[in-house]
Amino acid sequence: MIDLSTLTAYIAVVLGFVFIPGPATLLTVARATSSGTRVGVATGAGVAAGDVFHTIMAMVGISAIIATSATLFSVVKYIGAAYLVYLGIRAIIERIPADPTAGALAISASKAFRQAVLTEVLNPKTALFFLAFLPQFVRPENGSVMLQLMTLGIIFVLLGLFSTVVFAVSAGRLGTFLRRNPSVVKWQGKVVGGIYCALGVRLALQQR
User: Fold this and answer.
1) Is pLDDT above 70 for 16?
2) pTM for this structure?
């Protein structure tokens, strides 16, 4: 079972991720602004469903790696930490449109859900993120690795879904705020990037 300190640290990091406007949040806000709260919530639910898929894939893949070699698992964790740093650097230097909520066409809730699921499932960056991120909080000595991964994945999905629902409900105000304050969108990438880099470096040093 995951120890309390690891779980607390994980939840704190995930909360930072999901409540700082990122691609999923901006997509949800755009959908909710153009098609209503229901469509925004459906978009968030689709993203969450896609994350469930990636959690399952990570559970199967990482469990297989651990069953093969504990050393290989350590290598995967180091690679994952390095990938988080890479994501951080990319997020810091990436240019984001001044109004990322613009240009979304009105669609139905069911179509928004399907599109969000497919987009998330087929996104290789999401798959790599889960494979890089989740193992950092897994401790084989704490029991079933698959159970730990499942717990971490469920927490991530639920917190992510909660955040997108919040953003969907407040989409009108948030969309207006983002349009009036483009610097927020500009700097959110740098904040997220800083979190990624710090987390990757910290985890790499912890594993020595």
Assistant:
1) yes
2) 0.72
